[in-house]
Amino acid sequence: MNNLQATTVMIALFALRCIVPLLLTVGLVRLMNRLVERWTAEEAAREQGALGGTPLVSRPAIPVTSATPTPSFSCWLLRNCDETRRAGCPAYRRQSIPCWQARLMEEGKLPAGCQTCPGFAAA
To answer: In sequence order, which residues have a C-beta less than 8 Å from that of residue 57 and are 6 or more positions away?
Structure first.
């Protein structure tokens, strides 16, 4: 084997050992970034749907069935909320379902004050 052939073999082995895994890693990173961008866009679309736009998913996160009792009182009246606070309240915007369920659907967690409320206890 002459020097030219030996050099060519060494370069080819170096490429297989170092450059190919590096290129595969770069390709996987690009694919993962595209996946994260897609998830971010889907989440933004879901949030836009929750705020009044067209929802991405047609079913609610927590199913509202006919067995769910309708509220017999208004929590914003019990708490003496003013008009500016009512405008940002999920329970005020969704008066057809119990206030605790509206907040759970929009905020993703149940507020601490709901557990002592008589409306929550009745449900």
So the answer is: 46, 49
Please tell me the pTM assigned to this model.
Answer: 0.39
The answer on 2 and 49 residing in a single domain is: yes
Distance of alpha carbon 12 from alpha carbon 19, whole angstroms: 10
Q: Same domain for 16 and 45?
A: yes
Q: How far apart are CA 89 and CA 2, in angstroms?
A: 81
* C-alpha closest to that of 85 among 72, 101, 74, 98: 74
Q: Which two tokens stand for residue 88?
A: 């940002």
- Determine the Cα–Cα distance for residues 101 and 50; give it in Å rounded to an integer: 14
- Note the pLDDT tens digit of each residue in 15-68: 889 888 999 999 999 999 999 999 998 888 887 776 555 444 444 555 555 454
